[in-house]
Amino acid sequence: MKKILITEDEVIAAYRRGEQNLSAGKEYVFTPLALDRIKALGMSIGADTPEDKSEKTEKQTKAITDFSGLKVCIGGDHTGFQLRKVIIQFLQGKGIAVEDLGSYSEESCDYPDFAKAVASLVSKGSVHFGIVVDATGNPSAITANKFKGVRAANCFNEFIAKSAREHNNANILALGAKAIGEETVKSILEAWLSSQFLGERHQKRLDKIAKVEELNFRS
Q: Same structural domain for residues 166 and 83?
């Protein structure tokens, strides 16, 4: 019997197609990376057990496709100026209202100023979520996460963006203009926008983060 090798890339492709349960005949051989990815994505191999079905019910939350009424703010330093224009155009093309907080040129400036402006609006609940852009995404995410109630995630692929929304209820997307290309950014935005927080056990973990946050704000 000829063996069919299943790689990590094929698992990811199946996940993006909406497949949650993969074929499991004797002819299929999964690489170690493929098995790790299956576990990380909450997928299953072969027939479902009752536990598998419970997991799948959670994972198969309907993707969001209607963005009407969504309001987003975006900000970043000079390194993210050109990418921010691409992002704004992409979001507006989906009917999303975008508030641009700068910078407004490629003249050198400081990322904390713009991360602060975005995080402030998100923390106050003035927008549904924010986007910060600098060279790598890290410094703006670090700055934004100093604000109460902010959960900024630096995302560099679709899987991380989806997980940040579903598991962490992230409300600020950090992007690195010098780390990823425009098409990757659009793909990340698609994953971010179409995903929603799954709650349940994930909320329990966020509650623990909130307690840490409250303790630090009081001290």
A: yes
Active site residue 202: no
Task: Give 59-86 pLDDT, tens digit per residue.
Answer: 444 556 678 789 999 999 999 999 999 9
pLDDT confidence of 218, banded at 50, 70, 90? low
Q: What CATH number should be reported for the domain holding residue 132?
A: 3.40.1400.10
Token pair in block for residue 209: 């983060």
State the total domains in the chain.
Answer: 2
CA 200 to chain centre: 18
- Note whether 208 and 216 are within 8 A (CB): no
Cis before 68? omega within 30: no
Exactly one of 78, 128, 167, 202 is catalytic; which is it? 167
Q: Could you tell me if 46 and 150 lie in one domain?
A: no
Residues 183 and 82 in one domain: yes
